[in-house]
Structure formats: structure tokens, C-alpha cells
Predict the structure of Metallo-peptidase family M12.
Amino acid sequence: MKKSAFILSLILSASFIPFGFVDAHEETNTAPQYIRDKLPQHREFTNLTEHPKTEKTVKANVLNKNGQIIDQKVFEKTADSTNSSSTTDQGTQKVTVLAVADEEYKAAYPDWQSRIQSIVEKADDAFNRDHNIDFEVKGLGEWGSSGQNSEQILADLSKDWDGQEYDFVIGFTRDANFDAGGIGYVYNSEPFGSAISVNLDQGTANTAKATQHELSHNFGLGHDPQGSGIKCIMNYDYAYSVDYWDPEHNETIEKNKIWYGN
Ligand SMILES: [Ca+2]
Ligand SMILES: [Ca+2]
Ligand SMILES: [Ca+2]
Ligand SMILES: [Zn+2]
């Protein structure tokens, strides 16, 4: 079976209830859908060469595993080195992010806090530019990731960190069992709690691309068919090479962005 057909069959299958929280009231169309998103890993490990643009100065709470505030960190607004008109593309719709690193990620990077903040700030540049949505990292957390595969690790993040007052919870992992470039929930209506996704460490540049892809799923976007030639970050063929969406996906983001922020 083709990968696209396989994914579609998972979305459509009423019996595919991965972790018990997709309830049976399908006719209400409110249960979050689940996508088994095997966004492939990139061949290369590529880091950003410049610090990405932070659109607005933000103070983030640093949380321990129990959710208690143990520190605060300020991320100053930075200019966009690639765009001189740095105020024109600043998203006025502010959405909040809790960025969490798992134990393997933390062990690899003593600077994990600024590292994952940079990834989110790179991933949101296109959301600012094309949809006026600005992601703000308001929380930084630790996470003991566990699971046999990426689906279980996504569910583990949801179990540990959903229920906080953030629009998005984004996990960053180096867990050896995480068998994808990224994975996220595809919602068909506003999620009850936070929107959840997890991305593999592939260097900050590639991880930012995966993060933009998974955040897009959180807005209800599906995939473009591979081999279609449609250039969009939601097409596996281009997910690591473009930073924009095709017109249909742009429409979906505009329709659903009311789910998040103020
Ligand atoms: Ca940014
Ligand atoms: Ca931002
Ligand atoms: Ca782990
Ligand atoms: Zn995907």
C-alpha cells in the first residue's frame, strides 16, 4: 500500500483508537483526529547558522518535571537578519508555547533552553509572514520521554504536559525509540487542551522545518500527495526545502487559526 493511502486509511478507520482518548462519538466530529505522521527524517543533520528572529521580547517560565516554576528566562526581541523591514511581518495574533526537552535532549545540549527556543522562533517565521500568527515561548520544561515508537512518545508527552495553560506543547526528543522526523495531532476542531507535537533532533535547521510541519497539523492540515509536485511544507517531498504552504493549506490555516491565542 502506498504511504499516502496507508495514512488516509488510518485517518478514516473508526477502529483505529490508539490510546483510548479518541472517543466513540464520531458523529459530533469533536474528537481529535490522530495522524500517524512518519515525516521522514532528513538525511543530514543541519544547524541554523544565525539566530532566528524573535518577534517580541518574551519572559518564559522554566518548569521542573512537576510543573513548578524553578527559573525565568528572558528572550529578547531580535531583528531579522534577512529582512530589513523587521516590523512589517510581525504577527499580531499571539499564541503561547510550552517547549519541552526530553532527558536525552537535555543530556546532549547544556544550552537546551535557548536551543529549543531558537527552533520555535525559526519555525514561526512563516506563520508570522503568511498568517500574522506569532508563537511565543512562554514556558520551558523537562520531560522524561518514554515509549516504544514515536506514536507512544507523542502520547507520553500529552500525558505529562497537557492541561497547562499553553496553546501549544512542543516536545524535542533524542529518544532512540522515536522513529520519525516529527509527529503531531491533526485536530478537526479546537483542541480541549494544548495542541501537541514532538520533533526529533535533526539539528536546529531541520528540526525547525519539522516543527513548522507538525504545528501545521495542529491547525488541521493534512498532507499533499508525494509525487504531486505541489510545493508545500505539508508535502514530504518538500518538507525540508520550502517554508510555505500551498493555497488550499493557507486557507485552512486562516479558517482554523481562531482556535489559538487571543
Ligand atoms: Ca520567529
Ligand atoms: Ca515568535
Ligand atoms: Ca527518553
Ligand atoms: Zn505530516
About this structure: The first helix runs from residue 3 to 12.
